[in-house]
Amino acid sequence: MIRVHDALANLLLVLPKNIFPFLVQDFAQIVDELGPKRGASLSARFEKTLHDLRRSIRSGLQVLNVKIFDYTSEVVPQGGGIHEITKYLLKYILSLLDNGRSLKIILVGDEQDGKVAMETLQDIVATLISHLEIMLEKESQRYKDAGLKQMFMVNNVNFVLHQVEGSKIRYLLGDDWVLKHQDQMKDHISSFINISWESVMYCFHVKTNKIPIFSNLPTLQIFNLQFEKTYWTQKTWKVENPLLRSNMRKSVSEKLVQAYSTYLEKHKNKAPKLMKYTPEDLEKLLSDLFEG
């Protein structure tokens, strides 16, 4: 039992640098077994160590939250990919939940400090993710291309959502949290398409002589120029999740090909002379997007 106390005391030396790797799953069992057996002297030493450990973990969580909130990287992920902090934090949270019972025992309210009981594990996880989302929003502003900003948010929000949906985090945060973030994903995807393909779609809705730079060009020539510029740019952007990549290609294709086909139908007498791409050509090209 003394060795248990000494081991806990030694753990304080590494906090908050490595806060939770030591929370082995049998820690709760050790506490349960020690509870009724330890003498007054050992009990006092054990409770003091537990108290110090509790304060160190609280402090470590506060430090982590501040670091995430204030984080600024030197280089943002190329092509709007998943941020390393996003991957790290979700792995970290899963580690917390793997040792949830031990953590709850350690973080039980400290009456000696006269404080209210430590926030629940749900609050801890929700706060960490909330601060991550704020950090990601700030990081997205570092991209010069407005479409790439949305691509970055799509990739990172989807990664968080996917990790939550496929793990015990879902049961901790609840269905309302999941539904809210599913709606956020739809909004980010919609914003991405509207922003990044706006210049391509624009020529179908506005008379081209109202756009000075294209005043002497037919609509289809403008479309070809704008499409190729956007297409080759987005060929270098990467959507890492295969299902998300497929869905985004489909969303872009449905919107663009439909508008293109409608224009060709309305101008079928003149369009063939200037048509560089068939609707099928566009569908094939768009199926190669977002590979990075």
TrEMBL record:
Gene3D superfamilies: Exocyst complex component Exo70 (1.20.1280.170). Pfam families: Exo70_C. SUPFAM superfamilies: Cullin repeat-like. Keywords: Exocytosis, Protein transport, Transport. GO terms for molecular function: phosphatidylinositol-4,5-bisphosphate binding. It comes from the Eukaryota. One of its GO terms (biological process) is exocytosis. One of its GO terms (cellular component) is exocyst. Residues 31-288 form the Exocyst complex subunit Exo70 C-terminal domain. Component of the exocyst complex. Belongs to the EXO70 family. This is Exocyst subunit Exo70 family protein. It comes from Triticum turgidum subsp. durum (Durum wheat).
